[in-house]
Amino acid sequence: MWASSETGATPTGTLLFVPGGLGPLAASAVLVRASGRSVRAWLREVFAARVALRYYILALALPGIVEYPLFLGFIILFGGGLEEPGWRGYLLPALQETYSPLTAGLIVGVVWAGWHLPLVFISGTIQHTLRLGLYLLQLVELSILLTWLTNRSHRSGSFWRWSLASSLWDTASTAT
Question: What is the pTM of this model?
Fold first, then answer.
C-alpha cells in the first residue's frame, strides 16, 4: 500500500499512506487476538505513557547520537566539507585584502551559491528538493556567518570549524 502512494503529494497518496503505516499495528492486533490474548490489554501495554523521563530523552537523543555523527562525518569527508579550504582558506582571505569582511563574505557566498546552482537542477540531489531562492540565500547567509567564525578564530585550524559548520548546515537541510 505504501509503495503505491506518492506520500503526501496527492490526497490519494495521503489516504494510502495512513493505512500503510497502520498495517503493522493491525497485523499485530490480529496475531494477539489469534494467540488468545486480550487486544485491549495489549494496546494498554503498548501505549503506556508512564515511563521514566530518561527513557523519553534516550528515545529522542539516541538516533541523533548514533546516526547524525555518521552522516555528518560522511559529509565532512566526502561532501561539502572538502570545499571549505578553497572558499574560506583561499578565496575569503584574498578578498579581505581588498574588501571588508562583510563584503568578502557576501562575494564568497554568491560564488559558493553559483558553484552549487547546477545541483539544484540535477534530479536525485538533495539540492534538487530544496526551494531555489531560499537555498541560495541560505548559502550567502551561511557564508557571512562562516566569515565571522573564520575571522574570530584567526584561521588557525579553521578547516575543522568551517567543515563542521558547513556540514552541519548540509545535514540539517537534508533533514527538513
Answer: 0.56
